[in-house]
Design brief:
This protein is an alpha+beta fold and about 170 residues long. The protein contains five helices and six strands. It has one domain (about 5-165). It has helices at about 5-10, 30-45, 95-115, 120-145, 150-165, and strands at about 15-20, 50, 60-70, 70-80, 85-90, 145-150. Helix 2 (about 30-45) packs antiparallel against helix 5, helix 3 packs antiparallel against helix 4 (about 120-145) and helix 4 packs across helix 5.
């Protein structure tokens, strides 16, 4: 095996194999929110790129535990054997207004599906996707010191960040 094959094998291991959301509230969420959470986790585990930065960092696959506490989102990263590797803690402040806007547009989108024309629904959905992409870009940028993720992984993380923000 040459160096390129070695690098390729190591690169292929940089993904998340398990994810757990730690929610402070045991209240049941709206069905739409539960569905978004389930889809985001399924899609994230199906395909993702996640590579820890830094010296002496273990390659994956990784297990991830996401929690929200005291205005911070915490990404607790361990290896497949549950050995702690890294904690990435981000303040939620830069996301607050974006999450609020995202929830308002999502609410409009779910209402629109029931009564509006396909063209109107599509317009609202474009706004929803735009806010979602903006949140994912901010998240990807803020995580870049600690971990490398692709756009699709960042989008799923933004969805999960929004779900963790809901208080009931």
């Amino acid at each position: 095996m040459n160096n390129f094959d070695d690098m390729k094998q190591k690169e292929d291991l940089n993904y998340i194999v398990d994810i757990e959301l730690v929610q402070s509230s045991l209240l049941r969420k709206l069905p739409e929110v539960e569905h978004e959470r389930e889809v985001a986790i399924f899609d994230l585990l199906e395909k993702n790129k996640f590579k820890l930065n830094g010296d002496n960092i273990s390659i994956g696959p990784y297990k991830l535990r996401l929690s929200f506490k005291d205005g911070n989102i915490t990404f607790l990263v361990s290896n497949k054997d549950n050995e702690f590797l890294k904690n990435v803690i981000l303040s939620i402040k830069p996301f607050r207004s974006l999450i609020k806007d995202y929830f308002l547009v999502c609410e409009s989108y779910y209402d629109a599906i029931k009564t509006m024309s396909p063209k109107q629904i599509e317009a609202i959905d474009m706004g929803r996707r735009s806010l979602h992409n903006e949140g994912a870009e901010i998240l990807k940028d803020r995580m870049s010191k600690h971990v490398q993720i692709d756009d699709s992984t960042a989008r799923r993380f933004f969805t999960l960040l929004c779900v963790l923000q809901i208080r009931g």
